[in-house]
Amino acid sequence: MEDRSHKVLLALVMLFLFAVIVLQYVCPGTECQLLRLRALSPPAAADPYRAEDETPARFVPRFNFSAGDLLRRVDFNIKGDDLIVFLHIQKTGGTTFGRHLVRNIQLEQPCECRAGQKKCTCHRPGKRETWLFSRFSTGWSCGLHADWTELTNCVPSVVDSKKEVRLRPSR
């Protein structure tokens, strides 16, 4: 009798292990577990910084911008002294976006890009000064892949060096 109960218990354990293995093939990862847990728990607001498997977040945002900050409108005066400085962050689509800035933006006086040249001329209407500071308009003026600190120190000196002292805007 004892031998028979051991066989039944062994069969149940084997059946359970087989079911777990089949479940892993049918539903790999944590999706099935999450569906079952969500069905039993009340819906909650999704936290974009929370991992799907509920492990603690590896990224904790330091800056929380309000909707007003993100949706604010900035008026750019291409005829005045306004200057767009493009900070290229590597591996974020910056090269594509930088090309878009010089080739596709519809302005009163768009950038002039000639075939075979890497730099484009982005002059203000009626002036010989640029409105865009990027590697596609000014080249590597502040060094290869200049970061925020380098650009903050370099841009005013590069831009102001091309103007007469009396024409330099206050920044």
- The main sheet orders its strands as 1-2
Mean pLDDT equals 79
What is the strand tally?
Answer: 2
What shape does the CA trace take? elongated
Range of helix content: 25-40%
H and E string: HHHEHEH
Largest sheet: 2 strands, parallel
Regions with little confidence, pLDDT below 50 for 5+ residues: none
Note the total helix count. Answer: 5
Distance between the termini: 94 Å
Class from helix and strand fractions: mainly alpha
- Percent range for β-strand residues: under 5%
Give structural notes:
The protein contains 5 helices and 2 strands. With 171 residues, the protein is mostly helical. Strand 1 (84-85), helix 4 and strand 2 (132-133) form a beta-alpha-beta unit. The protein is elongated, with a radius of gyration of 30 Å. It starts with a helix and ends in a 10-residue tail after the last helix. The model has no long low-confidence stretch (mean pLDDT 79).
Q: Keywords, please?
A:
2 strands, 5 helices, 37% helix, single chain
Helices and strands in order:
Blueprint (H helix, E strand, L loop, with lengths): L1 H25 L4 H10 L26 H5 L12 E2 L8 H10 L28 E2 L14 H14 L10
Parallel strand pairs: 1-2
